[in-house]
Structures are given as C-alpha cells and as structure tokens.
Amino acid sequence: MASNNVAPIPLDTYNLGFIGAGKMAESIARGVVKSGVLPASRIRTAHHRPQRSSAFESFGVTVFEHNHQVIHDCDVVVLSVKPQIVKDVALELKPLLSEKQLLVSVVAGVKLKDLQEWAGHTRFIRVMPNTPAAIGQAASVISLGATATEEDGELVSRLFGAIGKVWRANEKLFDAITGLSGSGPAYIYLAIEALADGGVAAGLPRELALGLASQTVLGAASMAINGGKHPAQLKDDVASPGGTTIAGIHELEKAGFRGILMNAVVAAAKRGKELSPN
C-alpha cells in the first residue's frame, strides 16, 4: 500500500537518471526526449566507455563519470543493469538514496521485495519492457512497490508511454508477462523467417519474401490492435470458403500451431520463475 506521506516528484523540474547506460536505457531516454516528456537537459547517466557515453551525449544527455553523481542529481532513477550485478549496484547506492527519490527497475527477473531490501528503499516501481522499445513500440508493464504512490505510477507510465504502450499489473503476473511480451518478439521473428522461407519455397525472391512477411505481420498486428474485432473474427474474414487461406490454416491446425505458441509462452514463463531468486 502506497504511503500518503511521500513527497510528490516535482513534475516540472525533476531530473531523470539512469544507472546503467545500455541499449534499453538509451531507448527509454531517446523516447522520452523525442516525445517531449522531458528535455535531454534533465536526463543523466554515467559510463566510462566512450561509445556508450557518445550515444547519450549525441542527443543532449549529461554523462557523468560515476553513478553517485547520477543519484545526487536526480529525483527519478532507473536501474537498467544486468540481473547478475543489480544486487551489488543496489547495495552500493543504498547509503546515497533519500526518501524523496523514486527508483524504477527494468531489470529482468528481479523482484521488488529483493530490490527494496538491497536498496533499503521502498519507493520503487518495477517495469517489464521489451526490445521493440528501440523503435518506440515497446509493450511495458508496471508494478508499484510498497510506498510508490499513484502519482509515481502515472509519472512512470508517461515515461514508458514514450516508447510504446503501458499496462499496470500485479507483480505476481510478471513471469507470465516475461513469457508473452518479454520473450514474444523472438517467437514473431521466427514466424517472419518461416513465412519468408515459405515464400522462397513457393518461388519468391528472398528479399521480396522477407519484405512481404514482415509487412504482413505488421499489418495484421495493427488490425488486431485497431480493427475493433477479435483475432478469430479477423481470421474468419480472410478465410473464404474453400479458398487458399483456409487450406493454409488447415495445415497449421494439423501441426498444432496454436498449441505450440501457447506452450512456448508457458515454457518461457516457467523458466523465468526458475531463474528468479526466491
């Protein structure tokens, strides 16, 4: 339950910091700047490698040498480091944190209770984005920690809304979310590759087959999101009696296509649970 005594983040003046300057942090920062949610002048990170520093500096983000400088200068701090080192990072930051700061974790598989314990800080929000964040098409899910407020949740939703769509869910669902939207892009890449291979097998040039497969998946996803119909109805609209589509669907059903995809999501969710500490 969020505390009513938590000081609100000053929306017009707050600084946003990233601990970890990898691709996900860069995608979030670029989206936030591009969408106008925050100017680059109010975003900070720290990194020693010139390549990563340059990536952030190229669109106006301040890059410090040390993480403690980010903590001292920011009201909202995003932890975007590898799961193997997040405990060490949180313990290192613990003495530097103040109650007025909001921490956000995009670290895969690490629970809020562990993050809160390591950092000695309960104003935390956990976010599960996915790799299409790089092109502003992420599916992100957020869950609020012990003393994070509704206003904190709205602030984080705005930040991650800059790189795609955002949902709110109980953290107990995060393993299943990992299995679906976290791992899901890889399933779709396999499907695109397979569709393209099918096109080549049927006589299409490789480049044309891949372009058609990719655009077909994009168009179908857009119809599912914006068409106002259930996917089953959209499928029925394409499959005319005795036609080409129903012949293809028949083959997919014989091979257990839907069951295979369902099994993939469940297997990934199960593996995510196994990998999570405790």
TrEMBL record:
Subcellular location: Cytoplasm
Keyword hit for Cell division: no
Annotated EC: 1.5.1.2
GO molecular function, a single term: pyrroline-5-carboxylate reductase activity
Residue positions binding NADP(+): I19, G20, A21, G22, K23, M24
Catalytic activity as recorded in UniProt: L-proline + NADP(+) = (S)-1-pyrroline-5-carboxylate + NADPH + 2 H(+); L-proline + NAD(+) = (S)-1-pyrroline-5-carboxylate + NADH + 2 H(+)
Keywords assigned by UniProt, alphabetized: Amino-acid biosynthesis, Cytoplasm, NADP, Oxidoreductase, Proline biosynthesis
Coiled coil, from the record: none
Family: Belongs to the pyrroline-5-carboxylate reductase family.
Protein's UniProt name: Pyrroline-5-carboxylate reductase
Source organism of this protein record: Coffea arabica (Arabian coffee)
